[in-house]
Design goal:
heterodimer, A: 6-stranded antiparallel β-sheet, two-stranded antiparallel sheet, 4 helices, B: 4-stranded antiparallel β-sheet, two-stranded antiparallel ribbon, globular
């Protein structure tokens, strides 16, 4: 089965992510390399010199979340706990989150959490990835994989070199690898013409 | 070796002359060749312009100073920025209000190229205002994402 994105154009010239060989569906997968400003993640170091307005953020609906390497282990453990606690009902009615999503929220801080920002066309909560010097789409596939999320071990030589390069540009950069469901944009872009007040 | 507190990154300001104590921020945006993939991010806070739109934005500002209405000026700015940034109807607060900043069209990457604590550049940063390392990084990103458009956005920290 086709593993790499079969789009008419090649979006990324170098293969940075080694996706698994076996796929399970056609939902699509994308991997983002995140460069966090670590000093902003750590409250205890807040007195250190940090220029203002030097970070950006990513937002995406929680149902797109597969894993962040920085939180994946506690996420999976919490997910298992939640599944045990609900046993026959994996959908937790509170907050309309599935057990998988709730586990992601419970274990995401400080790297990601539920945002108060809303999207006019989405009915699922948005997750926010804060305090980023930047983010890079480093892998995209038209298929999905069972229980797979990207870690540093899944980077190719090119991916590893890029990872090391990004780490050295700014002070206290912490890198993360975010794996999301789907190939489409993280949220739909809404143009003025799509709105009632156009 | 880079100093621990250094955020000047890849920036090579055109001179020693300091315009003010407002800081400068320069962001690299990699505009996806299609709207079918990428991330939507907020425009940098207090963005002046991008390297690709600066001249047109300056002309619009001159026209505003010479008498066109603010509404017409904003319309021109929106049109000039539209290849990368569009008015925000994508992200709104839980109070139901859309944030004032524009949002990007889908991008494959966004990255801080540098942050200076003074305002040195009279215009906006372009490729020529990057250090050799900055140019090498920019060139690498350009080859990494073939078919994408790169923009350098300069913003002020106020």
């Amino acid at each position: 089965m086709l593993q790499e994105m079969d789009a008419p154009m090649q979006l990324i010239s170098k293969r940075m992510v080694e996706f698994p060989r076996q796929c399970v569906g056609r939902e699509g997968t994308q991997v983002w390399m995140l460069a966090y400003a670590e000093r902003l993640l750590l409250d205890s170091r807040i007195d250190e010199y940090i220029p203002l307005d030097i970070t950006t953020q990513l937002l995406f609906p929680i149902n797109r979340f597969i894993g962040l390497d920085l939180t994946y282990k506690p996420h999976q453990e919490r997910y298992a706990e939640l599944l045990k606690s609900v046993e026959t009902e994996p959908m937790l009615r509170t907050n309309y989150l599935t057990a998988y999503e709730l586990a992601a929220v419970d274990t995401g801080r400080p790297y990601l959490y539920i945002s108060t920002t809303e999207h006019p066309q989405l009915n699922r909560p948005l997750m926010i990835v804060p305090h980023l010097y930047g983010a890079f789409l480093i892998g995209i596939a038209s298929v999905s994989y069972a229980d797979w999320h990207c870690t540093q071990r899944d980077l190719t030589e090119h991916g590893q070199a890029f990872y090391e390069r990004i780490k050295t540009i700014f002070p206290s950069t912490k890198l993360g690898l975010l794996t999301l469901r789907g190939t489409e944009p993280l949220v739909p872009l809404v143009l003025k013409s799509d709105t009632d007040d156009a | 070796m880079r100093r621990d507190e250094s955020y000047d990154g890849f920036l090579n300001p055109p001179g020693e002359y300091r315009i003010s104590d407002e800081g400068e921020r320069v962001w690299l945006f990699v505009r996806a060749p299609t709207d079918a993939v990428g991330a939507i991010v907020m425009e940098p806070y207090e963005m002046i312009a991008t390297d690709r739109t600066y001249e047109a934005e300056r002309a619009a500002k001159d026209a505003f100073r010479n008498g066109i209405s603010y509404k017409e000026y904003r319309k021109q700015i929106e049109q000039i920025r539209s290849p990368l940034f569009v008015p925000n109807f994508t992200f709104r607060s839980d109070y139901g209000e859309f944030y004032d900043e524009m949002v990007s069209r889908p991008v494959l990457a966004v990255f801080l190229m540098g942050a200076l604590e003074k305002w040195y550049h009279e215009q906006v940063y372009t490729y020529d205002d990057l250090t050799d390392d900055g140019k090498a990084f920019y060139d690498f990103i350009k080859t990494l994402y073939p078919g994408s458009e790169l923009y350098l956005a300069t913003a002020l920290e106020t």
